[in-house]
């Protein structure tokens, strides 16, 4: 694949006080990209979902490299503090974790004896609590064994509990910087719900934080100030209270967005067959 790169400039007076943002295409030619995740070792991971691949891109390289193949529909990815990679495998209907040597461990694949619908989004808190969404998109709807859509909690010791039982489909998930709030994007409702998290990582107090989102909300990310970045029709940025601060327009529906680069000020976004790097320019 030959890498095509371009840049455009859009107005952006968002939460990080950007002046303008340069948008560059860093990788393209995929069928559908998802699950952007930044490693503390300085590289980006993302899924090429229909092609069953997970790829790695590092600054200074023209092309990403395939690090996993035959991954049965990888969607969301996330790293924990130890650098282990968590992945939602939608077609295998499970959540797995890979260690530094690439050894894969299955963390969740059933609830009360029934197979999961098709895990999509995943986030890991600083204290090691993982949360994943379990919607059912496309043909997954026809193969459902569960009569609900769920958000699940994987405790650091591996115990899986149901964090939320839902009638409509969740997609993205994120945890606030202080570990006290869980955010879930709702694809059908065009909304984001929030839950309080206790010291054991258990969720309660469901509330609608954001409604009326333009486009279908997918991946979520938070900055150090607790502002929420929603991948949808562009990237919409909200305060912790749910107030819209700014929208970064994109030409394609965005499926995920994550902070990266050495200073963690860039945003890497997956959108259809392309991965973009959004870089704030200094005022």
Helical residue percent band: under 10%
The CATH architecture is 6 Propeller
Q: Poorly predicted ranges (pLDDT <50, ≥5 residues)?
A: 1-15
CATH classification class: Mainly Beta
**Helix and strand element order:** EEEEEEEEEEEEEEEEEEEEEEEEEE
Shape designation: globular
**Radius of gyration computed on alpha carbons:** 17 Å
CATH fold-level assignment:
Neuraminidase
> Count of helical segments?
0
CATH superfamily: TolB, C-terminal domain
Q: What is the structural class?
A: mainly beta
List how many beta strands DSSP finds. 26
Would you kindly provide a written description of the structure presented here, covering whatever features stand out?
The structure is a single chain. By secondary structure, this protein is mainly beta. It has one domain: 6 Propeller (Neuraminidase). It is built from no helices and 26 strands. The chain has strands at 7-11, 20-28, 33-39, 43-48, 53-57, 65-68, 74-79, 85-89, 94-98, 104-108, 110-111, 114-115, 122-124, 130-134, 149-154, 160-166, 170-175, 181-186, 191-197, 203-210, 220-222, 228-238, 244-253, 256-260, 266-271, 274-281. Strands 1-2-26-25-24 form a 5-stranded antiparallel sheet, with no helix packed on it. Strands 3-4-5-6 form a 4-stranded antiparallel sheet, with no helix packed on it. It is globular. It starts with 6 loop residues before the first strand and ends with a strand. The relative contact order is 0.16. The model is unreliable at 1-15 (pLDDT under 50).
């Amino acid at each position: 694949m030959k890498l095509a790169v371009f840049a455009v400039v859009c107005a952006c007076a968002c939460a990080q006080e950007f002046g303008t943002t340069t948008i560059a295409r860093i990788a393209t030619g995929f069928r559908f990209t998802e699950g952007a995740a930044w490693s503390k070792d300085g590289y980006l991971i993302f899924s090429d979902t229909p092609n069953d691949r997970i790829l790695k891109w590092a600054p200074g390289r023209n092309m990403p490299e395939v690090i996993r193949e035959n991954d049965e529909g990888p969607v969301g990815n996330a790293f924990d503090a130890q650098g282990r990679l968590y992945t939602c495998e939608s077609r295998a209907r499970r959540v797995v974790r890979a260690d530094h040597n690439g050894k894969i461990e299955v963390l969740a694949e059933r609830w009360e004896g029934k197979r999961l619908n098709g895990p999509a989004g995943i986030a890991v808190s600083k204290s090691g609590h993982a949360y994943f969404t379990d919607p059912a998109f496309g043909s997954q709807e026809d193969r459902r064994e569960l009569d609900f859509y769920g958000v699940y909690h994987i405790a650091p010791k591996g115990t899986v509990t149901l964090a939320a039982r839902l009638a409509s489909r969740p997609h993205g998930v994120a945890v606030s910087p202080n570990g006290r709030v869980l955010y879930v994007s709702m694809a059908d409702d065009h909304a984001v719900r929030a839950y309080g998290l206790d010291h054991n990582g258990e969720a309660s107090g469901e509330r609608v934080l954001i409604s009326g989102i333009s486009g279908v909300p997918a991946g979520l990310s938070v900055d150090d100030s607790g502002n929420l970045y929603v991948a949808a029709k562009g990237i919409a940025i909200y305060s912790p209270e749910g107030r819209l601060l700014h929208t970064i327009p994109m030409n394609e529906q965005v499926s995920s967005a994550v902070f990266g680069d050495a200073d963690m000020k860039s945003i890497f976004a997956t959108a259809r067959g392309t991965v973009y790097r959004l870089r704030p320019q200094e005022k």
